[in-house]
Amino acid sequence: MNDYSAALSTIEATVLGADAPLAAIEEVAARAVKFGFHGVCVAPSRVALAASLLSGTGRVVVSVVGFPLGNTLTETKVREVRELLDAGASEVDMVMNVGAFLDGDEGLIANEFAQARRAAGDATLKVILETGYLTAEEIRRAGALAVGEGADFLKTSTGYGPRGASIEDIEILRGITNVKGIKASGGIRHADELLSMLAAGASRIGTSSDSGIALELLARGPSSG
């Protein structure tokens, strides 16, 4: 990257805590505009507010489906996708049903991905694999299944699982045929962690430490490459 503005533009500033008040949504939207983030990732009930705050700014609203456990009914997930887009989201991050995947029920998983893809239409669909529960081979298989059913991005983690993103996760996901993008999320709190994820092949970064990371990067001045 030629400068840190490019790194900042990969950030989806995330506010998903159960106790996040209205003010937290207003503040994250303001930071997205100030620092030039890709956008914000907020809970479903906050999508309409975030969309109104970011209207006309070029920043996008992302929200979550089946979050954080992924084991809601397929029909519920599909309805959530439609409702989030109707409320003003541009992108949806859907949690895979990890238990069903580990059971070997790939038919259920594929059907869920395919239905979510149809519901999302032209909007960006990301599938959260929750890599902390999976082996390297399972990450590859789940990722390939998601991409095969039309997922635009593969996302590592919810931030509520056994661990967050790792460099190894990104390297595995990068090797999946036809993957369009990779979102690293979970445990990314500092600028060097963000830059390492991008260097490994991530194209988006989900983090609730967006302000600190932005200030760290800006304090360094122009990037040397």
What would you say this structure looks like, in words?
It is a single chain. The chain is of the alpha/beta class and 225 residues long. The chain has one domain (4-219): Aldolase class I (TIM Barrel, Alpha-Beta Barrel). 46% of the residues lie in helices and 16% in strands. The protein is built from ten helices and eight strands. It has helices at residues 4-8, 22-35, 47-54, 74-87, 98-103, 106-120, 136-148, 167-174, 191-200, 210-219; strands at residues 11-15, 39-42, 60-65, 91-95, 124-128, 153-155, 181-185, 204-207. The protein has an eight-stranded parallel beta barrel with strand order 1-2-3-4-5-6-7-8, surrounded by seven helices. Helix 2 (22-35) runs parallel beside helix 3 (47-54) and helix 4 (74-87) packs parallel to helix 6.
In short:
The protein is of the alpha/beta class and 225 residues long. The chain has helices at 4-8, 22-35, 47-54, 74-87, 98-103, 106-120, 136-148, 167-174, 191-200, 210-219, and strands spanning 11-15, 39-42, 60-65, 91-95, 124-128, 153-155, 181-185, 204-207. The protein has one domain: Alpha-Beta Barrel (TIM Barrel).
Strand pairing plus helix content: what structural class?
alpha/beta
CATH architecture: Alpha-Beta Barrel
By DSSP (H or I, 4+ residues per run), the number of helices equals 10
Q: Alpha-carbon distance between the termini? A: 5 Å
**Rg, Å, rounded:** 16 Å
